[in-house]
Amino acid sequence: MSQPQYLTGQREALQEFLSKYDIFLFDCDGVLWSGDHLFDGTVATLEFLRASGKRVVFVTNNSTKSRKDYCKKLEGMGIPATEEEVFGSSYSAAIYISRILPQRHPELKSKPKVFVIGESGIEQELDSENVPHIGGTDSSLRRLGINPEDYTKIAAGDPSVLDPEVGVVLTGLDFHFNYIKMCLAYHYIKRGAIFLATNIDSTLPSAGALFAGAGTMAAPLTMMLGGTEPVALGKPSQAMMDAIEGKFKFDRSRTCMVGDRANTDIKFGLEGKLGGTLGVLTGVGTKEEFTEGDTRPHFYVDRLSDLLAAKEA
Amino acid sequence: MSQPQYLTGQREALQEFLSKYDIFLFDCDGVLWSGDHLFDGTVATLEFLRASGKRVVFVTNNSTKSRKDYCKKLEGMGIPATEEEVFGSSYSAAIYISRILPQRHPELKSKPKVFVIGESGIEQELDSENVPHIGGTDSSLRRLGINPEDYTKIAAGDPSVLDPEVGVVLTGLDFHFNYIKMCLAYHYIKRGAIFLATNIDSTLPSAGALFAGAGTMAAPLTMMLGGTEPVALGKPSQAMMDAIEGKFKFDRSRTCMVGDRANTDIKFGLEGKLGGTLGVLTGVGTKEEFTEGDTRPHFYVDRLSDLLAAKEA
Questions:
Q1: Of the residues A176, A199, A232, which one is the last residue of a structural domain?
Q2: What is the CATH classification number for the domain harbouring A207?
Q3: Of A75, A106, B50, B69, which is least surrounded by CB within 10 A?
Q4: In-domain check, residue B92
């Protein structure tokens, strides 16, 4: 396995590196910031890339936020960004459903109705692609418990509870996850709906600790279905790369993925056959992983802002 | 692998079969009834066994009901039963926690406090063994969503949300399952609590269809924990057999498990090295499974009431 090239402090190598790519895909947490702390030089580095004619894209598995919401988050962190520069797993799912599924499943209506387990970010992105949906933030499903009528209606396939037009179940992070949603999703899939997930991260970092990630909404269904996994549309799934490509029509050989995790970000770039992958040491991944692990980036730097050394003096 | 003996219509063989056992452990759904339909001859067969001096025990994975609740269900189906004859997975869990855990984990207090994901059946059974517990039906945890304060308090290990005395997390079927319970359970386990489940059935039959079973409350935690499975205390786990033995002090060689499912009921009896296992063909298992499958009972009959043919004319 080849050794990644270490670029920190190597002006000529940095300049050559930058000259190879037109688009940089960025993982965010661990690369641009950590938790609530923006790294020094993040904003200047992004500005330098943009000023050099590069396109930057923020690639996030956060499914609770739409691109618009995520832009606000970026701006709240002090990072200027446009909605066009954000690519989240909810948007990835919406693109996949509206543009890719109809090709792969000609038996579906061109835009099948989606039963959503998740928050408003998913709904906003489905709306942006004109994909019809139910579930999600519907207040009638935001309740605990199940009553005898639910059992009999679901068992009977009553169209007042099981919409016959649903052709896709999409699970994402849902803080309002509950028993009835789990049962409805199961019945839709058993009736033939395609099982998708915005992403299947097992945990969600918040306040310096880990909480339940979007994968915990898919896991019970996988168990009920006897092991059937969803098609996941976030990193490192290549379905997300396909969706990014569907949106930007980029040249993969001129694209570089930047991230801190070998097994998600770097893997995502390598399996997507991007021209380059850049590891940073400000997050989860270590120098040992990048240089001795199974999944190695093409390049690595101590921190993202080390790219600024490519500037002419 | 040996062939099971077919007993239907064989009076002498039936009499010999009955003479071998003092205790009969019964699975219920598929053996005594199906859904809401009590099989003809169920009551007469149970009465015949009791009149012949046999002890009958109803062994159920239903964790939402205490023994008392389950007795009412049996009586509602027309089957006379006493609380002493019922052994459910919640009671199994309570026995395991109060009598077996302290031996296996001497570092625990003799009765560690339990964080419960489940309904009142679990709480009643923990109470019956004087095991302290929190969570469960606590109304403060019956809410959807999570707020910023929850994140910071959980992350900080605030004792007002994470009780330092909790040494066990017990998951069972919870119709009020939600995000906050999932996160609390995860943090308790990460802090060292033992991860138990009343049972891990993936589905729950009701109204002729399948709904989410108790396993769907454990599956998200297993995912968050990177694959750690709970110790399951329902069939076919031998922890349940140990708990039954802890209660009845029976002679395994003089005990017979009766069930319709090869992979749960029959497996439960075989792995528990009971003297006998009897398959019935009124539920999930088929003659082919019983005679050609990997898990074969010692004996099988078409239906439970075929045992009545052992009566002297």
A1: A232
A2: 3.40.50.1000
A3: A106
A4: no
Using CB atoms, pick whichever of A142, A152, A210 lies closest to residue B207. Answer: A152
Q: Residue B105: its pLDDT value, please?
A: 86
Q: Is the bond leading into B236 cis (omega within 30 degrees of zero)? A: yes
Is residue A22 annotated as a catalytic residue, yes or no? no
A198 and A265, same domain (yes or no):
no
Of residues B207 and B298, more confidently modeled: B298
Looking at residue A157, its pLDDT comes to 96
The answer to the question of residue B224 being in a domain is yes
Closest to A179 (Cβ–Cβ): which among B145, B177, B208?
B177
Q: How many domains does chain B have?
A: 2
Domain membership of residue B151 (yes or no) is yes
Q: For chain A, list residues with pLDDT below 50.
A: none
- A184 domain-assigned: yes
State yes or no: B29 annotated in a binding site: yes
Domain of A179, in residue numbers: 108-232
Residues of B in contact with A222 (CB under 8 A): 219
What pLDDT, on a 0 to 100 scale, did the predictor assign at position A313? 65
- Same domain (yes/no): A114, A221: yes
Together in a domain, B219 and B115 = yes
Report CB contact under 8 Å: B209, A187.
Answer: yes
Would the pLDDT of B1 be above 80?
A: no
Residue of A177, A182, A208 lying closest to B155 (CB–CB):
A208
What pLDDT score does A81 carry? 95
**Cβ-Cβ contacts under 8 Å, B210 against chain A:** 186, 224
pLDDT at B46: 97
Q: Which of B27, B69, B265, B306 is catalytic?
A: B27
Confidence of residue B2 (pLDDT cuts 50, 70, 90): confident
Predicted confidence at residue A103, as pLDDT, reads 86
Interval B181-192: pLDDT, tens: 999 999 999 999
Q: What is the pLDDT of residues B104-155, one digit of tens each?
A: 888 876 678 999 999 999 999 999 999 999 999 999 999 999 999 999 999 9
